[in-house]
Amino acid sequence: MEPEKLDGGASWPLILDAVELGLVLVDADARVLLWNAWLARHSGVSAQTARGQPLAGVFGAGLSASFLTALSNTLRYRLPVVLSNVLHFCPLPLYAQTPADAAAARMPHAITMTPLVLPPWGACCLIQITDSSRAISREKVLQRQSERLNREVMTDSLTRAFSRGFFDHFYQQEFARAQRKGTKLSLIMIDVDYFKDYNDAYGHPAGDKVLIAVVQALQAVLLRSTDKLARYGGEEFAVILPDCGEHKALAIAELLRTAVLALNLPHRKSAISNQLTVSLGTSTLKAGQTSSAQALLDAADQALYAAKNQGRNCVQSRSPQTVAAPA
Ligand SMILES: Nc1nc2c(ncn2[C@@H]2O[C@H](COP(=O)(O)OP(=O)(O)OP(=O)(O)O)[C@@H](O)[C@H]2O)c(=O)[nH]1
Fold first, then answer.
1. Which residue in 1, 237, 289, 323 is deepest, having the highest Cβ count within 10 Å?
2. Whose CA is nearest to atom 15 of ligand 1?
3. Looking at this predicted complex, what is its ipTM?
4. How far, in Å, is the centroid of ligand 1 from the Cα of 277?
5. β-bridge mates for residue 191, sequence order
6. Do 127 and 160 share a structural domain?
7. Nearest to 318 by CA among 261, 249, 254
8. Which mutation among 159, 195, 257 tests ligand 1's pocket best, with the greatest number of atoms within 8 A of CB?
9. Ligand 1, pocket-test mutation among 193, 196, 209, most atoms within 8 A of CB
10. pLDDT value for 146
11. 3 state DSSP class of 60
12. Are residues 182 and 297 in the same domain?
């Protein structure tokens, strides 16, 4: 195609009015030279009204201070500026529907200001405005999806207790916090007694229902939002008790044990009772004690093992080894 055929000539205004973004050209005094149809649609101000007016006058009090500062900087220092919709949600009074009424929510948008020198006006600023509504609603959908996935990863799908993944993360975090602040931290490990026999006697689906009931009973005992109950694996559960000392942890473990007993779930294959029971092991990091997360976990595990050896349906406690603080 020959170069002159590329020159749209009289077609340019039609093209500028057809684009799906707002275009304003202002001169060095911020007077409107160009105002396209998109902008007229979303501002409720026609090109006829806007042309020749100072931009601040066209929008009146609706203009944000950040927009005015950016415009004056672009005109004065001839530097391009971007006002993203993240930091500047709605700098201009633009609306999805026109005429804009005061009650309508502003349309979120992003703005790019480009300094230009154009004959016959000289120094100008081209302002491009894009509608960010779609990008924002896409972002919201993605954020909701990511929150849902996070919740799923954090939650055990059968019992709705926290997952092992959550436990590992939260425990490390709480242990580090307790060491840093010199505060107490307790752990309780809980294991359902003769659960293999329960499954054998009543079937796996009945075993699943029992695990759900056990978690609900355990959860009802834990009143502080900071106390977290997680499924540690199979029929084993763990409770993290921040700022909780040895005696209190033992008392809570006892409450957890009796809460499961109170469910009155028959277990005809249990060697120690005719109903379902749990064994529990506690361990506590004392205030100011230096230890390791693994040592505290090992101690709770040893306590649970001791409870099993003691005859099950009971609570045992073990202290974690003190580990010298890193130099
Ligand atoms: N129904 C059901 N059973 C499970 C689930 N996860 C693990 N189990 C079963 O739990 C049983 C655990 O058995 P063991 O580790 O031998 O423990 P136990 O029979 O409780 O014996 P003690 O702990 O010594 O009292 C196994 O038979 C697993 O199949 C689950 O999600 N649902």
1. 237
2. 196
3. 0.97
4. 13
5. 236, 279
6. no
7. 249
8. 195
9. 196
10. 94
11. helix
12. yes
Domain end, chosen from 86, 104, 137, is at 137
Q: Pairing state of beta strands 278-285 and 315-317?
A: parallel
- Rounded Cα gap, residues 164 and 5, in angstroms: 69
> 247-250 — which CB contacts under 8 Å span 24+ positions?
248/186, 249/186, 249/187, 249/188, 249/282, 249/284, 249/317, 250/282, 250/315, 250/317
Show which of 137, 164, 182 is a domain's final residue: 137
Q: Where residue 124 sits, what CATH number does that domain have?
A: 3.30.450.20
Closest atom of ligand 1 relative to the 312 alpha carbon: 25
Active site residues: 235
Note the pLDDT of residue 1. 45
Q: In this structure, how many other beta carbons lie within 10 angstroms of the beta carbon of residue 322?
A: 13
Residue 148 falls inside a structural domain: no
pLDDT at 235: 97
Ligand 1 neighbours (beta carbon < 6 A): 158, 191-197, 199, 204, 207-208, 211, 234-235, 308
Domain count, the chain: 2
Helix axes 246-261, 204-221, angle to 10 degrees: 140
Instruction: Tell me, in angstroms, the distance from the centre of ligand 1 to residue 162's CA.
Output: 19
Q: Which amino acid makes up residue 299?
A: A
Query: CB atoms < 10 A from the CB of 127, how many?
Result: 25
CATH number of domain containing 302 = 3.30.70.270
* pTM, to two decimals: 0.72
Token pair listed for 186: 């307790």
- Ligand 1 centroid – CA 71 distance (Å): 69
Total residue length of the chain: 327
pLDDT averaged per 10 residues in sequence order, the chain, 327 residues? 60 89 95 95 93 90 83 91 77 76 76 93 94 89 93 94 96 97 98 98 98 98 96 98 97 98 97 97 96 97 98 97 74
Burial class of residue 34, CB neighbours in 10 A (0-12, 13-18, 19+): middle
